[in-house]
């Protein structure tokens, strides 16, 4: 049985004018760490809100742990943990009061599931009596995660948990997720950061409400159909405009200090390309073939989609 | 039920943690009850009068000194011409001009009648009307006493009217307004606070987190309404205390009846707050919507002016607000000592409001979530 099933879900806003989720179908296996990867406004939060029974879909059906998101919403609510993208705990209650409150709402106590949250809770325990609103961003994330976990959910939904959190906290957060996974909790997480996609077992790339691809990150990268080159020169901006004007270039995107490039006709040899670039007056040109990342795949899917 | 208990605990914790709110909740009724009734005084004193005496006779002097001695008037000027006197009204130094024509005394004596000119500044309508009336009654009184009339026998059997103010013997405005201010305070607590509090959960996003828990809708709603109901009852008690301590107003009627009404009224008002919260999505919206209605409640409920003297359409609106009925009941119980049987009709109205507003709110709450 799949932990999460979406079957041809469509959701529109403003009386059908804004299409947020467009005929999305996907399945998340039990115990999986699944990532929804896409930019802001791709429809990630809408999907989360449908799955957490906060939003009704226009068309299609969704189920969590075999329970229908519309009919059996009460059943689902006691089995899932949800951490919204925005910090949604009571800012005027202390850390301990928030935890206590949410534990009681689920008919549980902090003590009964202490082992589950121990690793995370230990980090915020020194601030037990501090009001949640006065915590730092990373601390808030940890508290929110604790509150979502306090009743030992079967499926955990995390909507952009690392947005606005520093790099160290982000890494810690993902380590925590991996630990939780070993407890058998199914985790569905969304993120706009492509580098975090690699940390998931399976990912869905989503753009404009449509799923572009669902697979393991490795397979998505392996499915990259052409060779990818990284090029660098002294004047990177002029290089990019020049490359875009060259007929043999298919796509070119600035990527940090390099430009990622694909060609219409693949050549084993890059010297011809290098010469062509140097003829245009570029100095210190380096060209190398590289392994594509998730972001390259994402951009490729996106371009295919818009063509 | 255990969950409800815990929600209540949390709500009270939040209310009592917000120092400003808690101070406002208890300071507001006390201070307003002390200040407002004193300020809202319709007994007009110190009407400024400019006099133009063309006659300079003993009668005209008698009249002027009688007016001056009545205690209601300050004679600010005595001018030789009306044109000069009217400038006092233009400069807002006088509210009334009394013009005594030449031959005032001789006409009175010879012909038995004489006309006087009274000019009123009607910008402050209340002061002008009441001041004008005072002046007329003083003149009337003078009319009775002057020897010409005193000599003539008044026609016997003329209808003589004497007044006595029942339930408020001295016709003091505070007796009228203090119970009303008390009602106003309950309205603010019940209507505003509950609406803002629930909308805040929406605005901050905490309602998302609450909604994914197995908590029942009714538990959440009751958890929100009960604390404000309790606060409202405390404020009501506090208000009664201030009314007694400061104004010496001790309800003539039964406390039980009054508290029963206050309890039902608060339920109705909390339903009103809940209703607003279901239609709005942030505190600013909620505040404006609540303010809109509370203004209508205040101005049309008979708080300041009598509902009976409103035009029929306004009377209809007034009767469609719960505040009108509650103010009426509180006045009846506090001043008149009305028993339960006298206010049964109002009880039915308030129960209908409580059921209607809450039912609508809960229906709409379900639909939107």
In brief, what are we looking at here?
Chain A is α/β, with parallel strands linked by helices and 307 residues long.
Number of strands of chain A: 14
Distance between the termini of chain B: 22 Å
What assembly state would you assign to the polypeptide chains in this entry? heterodimer
Helical content band of chain A? 25-40%
Largest interface: A-B, 25 and 20 residues
Largest sheet of chain A: 6 strands, mixed
Number of helices of chain A: 10
Question: Low-confidence spans of chain A: pLDDT under 50, at least 5 residues?
Answer: none
Radius of gyration of chain A: 23 Å
Q: Helical proportion of chain B?
A: 55-70%
Supply database-style keywords.
heterodimer, A: 307 residues, alpha/beta, Rossmann fold, Alpha-Beta Plaits, 2 domains, six-stranded mixed β-sheet, four-stranded antiparallel β-sheet, 33% helix, elongated, B: 369 residues, abc type-2 transporter like fold, four-stranded mixed β-sheet
Tell me about this structure.
Chain A: This is ABC-type multidrug transport system, ATPase component. Helix content of chain A is 33%, strand content 28%. By secondary structure, chain A is an alpha/beta fold. Chain A has two domains: 2-219, Rossmann fold, CATH 3.40.50; 225-291, Alpha-Beta Plaits (2-Layer Sandwich), CATH 3.30.70. In chain A, a hairpin with a 4-residue loop joins strand 1 (2-13) and strand 2. The model of chain A has no long low-confidence stretch (mean pLDDT 88). Chain B has 369 residues and is an alpha/beta fold. The interface between A and B is medium-sized, with 25 and 20 residues.
Helix-strand layout with pairing:
The complex is a heterodimer of chains A (307) and B (369).
Chain A: E1 2-13, E2 18-29, E3 33-37, H1 44-51, E4 59-64, E5 67-68, H2 73-77, E6 80-83, H3 95-105, H4 114-124, H5 137-149, E7 155-159, H6 167-182, E8 186-191, E9 202-207, E10 210-215, H7 217-222, E11 228-232, H8 236-245, E12 249-255, E13 258-263, H9 271-279, E14 286-290, H10 294-306
Chain B: H1 2-17, H2 19-39, E1 47-53, H3 58-69, E2 73-79, H4 82-90, E3 96-100, H5 104-111, E4 117-120, H6 125-145, H7 147-151, H8 173-204, H9 206-211, H10 217-247, H11 255-279, H12 283-300, H13 312-319, H14 322-336, H15 344-368
Parallel strand pairs in B: 1-2, 1-3
Antiparallel strand pairs in B: 3-4
């Amino acid at each position: 049985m799949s932990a999460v099933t979406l079957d041809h879900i469509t959701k529109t806003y403003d009386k059908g004018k804004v299409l947020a989720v467009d005929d999305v179908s996907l399945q998340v296996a039990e115990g999986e760490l699944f990532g929804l990867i896409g930019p802001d406004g791709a429809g990630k939060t809408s999907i989360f809100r449908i799955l957490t029974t906060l939003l009704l879909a226009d068309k299609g059906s969704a189920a969590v742990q075999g329970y229908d998101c519309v009919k059996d919403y009460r059943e689902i609510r006691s089995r899932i943990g949800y951490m919204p993208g925005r910090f949604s705990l009571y800012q005027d209650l202390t850390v301990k009061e928030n935890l206590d409150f949410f534990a009681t709402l689920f008919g549980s106590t902090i003590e009964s599931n202490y082992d589950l949250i121990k690793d995370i809770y230990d980090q915020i325990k020194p601030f037990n009596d501090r009001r949640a609103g006065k915590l730092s961003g990373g601390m808030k994330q940890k508290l929110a995660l604790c509150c979502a976990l306090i009743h030992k959910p079967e499926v955990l939904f995390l909507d952009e948990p690392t947005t606005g959190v520093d790099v160290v906290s982000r890494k810690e957060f993902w380590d925590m997720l991996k630990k939780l996974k070993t407890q058998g909790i199914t985790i569905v997480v969304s993120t706009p950061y492509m580098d975090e996609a690699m940390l998931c077992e399976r990912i869905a790339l989503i753009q404009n409400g449509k799923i572009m691809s669902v697979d393991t990150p490795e397979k998505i990268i392996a499915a990259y159909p052409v060779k990818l080159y990284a090029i660098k020169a002294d004047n990177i901006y002029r290089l990019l405009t020049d490359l875009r004007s060259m007929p043999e270039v298919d796509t070119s995107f600035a990527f940090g200090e390099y430009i990622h490039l694909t060609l219409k006709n693949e050549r084993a040899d890059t010297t011809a390309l290098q010469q062509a670039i140097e003829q245009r007056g570029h100095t210190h040109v380096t060209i190398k073939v590289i392994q594509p990342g998730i972001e390259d795949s994402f951009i490729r899917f996106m371009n295919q989609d818009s063509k | 039920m255990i969950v409800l208990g815990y929600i209540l605990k949390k709500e009270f914790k939040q209310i009592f943690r917000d120092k400003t709110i808690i101070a406002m909740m208890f300071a507001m009724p006390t201070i307003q009850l002390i200040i407002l009734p004193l300020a809202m005084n319709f007994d007009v004193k110190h009407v400024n009068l400019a006099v133009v005496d063309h006659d300079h006779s003993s009668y005209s002097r008698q009249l002027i000194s009688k007016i001056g001695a009545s205690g209601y008037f300050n004679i600010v000027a005595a001018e030789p011409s009306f044109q000069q006197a009217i400038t006092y009204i233009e400069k807002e130094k006088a509210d009334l001009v009394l013009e005594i024509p030449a031959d005032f005394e001789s006409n009175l004596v010879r012909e038995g009648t004489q006309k006087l000119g009274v000019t009123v500044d009607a910008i402050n309508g209340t002061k002008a009307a009441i001041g004008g009336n005072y002046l007329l009654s003083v003149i009337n009184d003078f009319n009775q006493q002057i020897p010409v009339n005193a000599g003539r026998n008044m026609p016997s059997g003329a209808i003589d009217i004497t007044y006595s103010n029942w339930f408020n013997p001295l016709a003091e405005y505070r007796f009228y307004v203090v119970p009303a201010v008390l009602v106003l305070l309950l309205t603010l607590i019940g209507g505003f606070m509950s609406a803002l509090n629930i909308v805040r959960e929406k605005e901050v996003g905490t309602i998302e987190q609450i909604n994914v828990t197995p908590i029942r809708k009714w538990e959440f709603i009751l958890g929100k309404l009960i604390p404000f109901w309790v606060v409202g009852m405390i404020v009501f008690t506090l208000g009664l205390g201030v009314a007694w301590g400061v104004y010496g107003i001790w309800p003539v009627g039964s406390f039980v009846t009054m508290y029963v009404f206050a309890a039902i009224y608060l339920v109705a008002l909390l339903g009103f707050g809940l209703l607003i919260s279901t239609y709005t999505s942030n505190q600013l919206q909620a505040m404006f919507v609540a303010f809109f209605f509370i203004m209508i409640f205040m101005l049309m409920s008979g708080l300041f002016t009598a509902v009976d003297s409103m035009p029929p359409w306004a009377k209809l609106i007034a009767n469609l607000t719960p505040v009108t009925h509650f103010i009426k009941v509180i006045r009846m119980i506090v001043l008149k000592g009305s028993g339960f049987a006298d206010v049964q009709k109002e009880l039915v109205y308030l129960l209908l409001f409580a059921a209607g507003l809450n039912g609508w709110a809960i229906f709409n709450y379900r639909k939107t979530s």
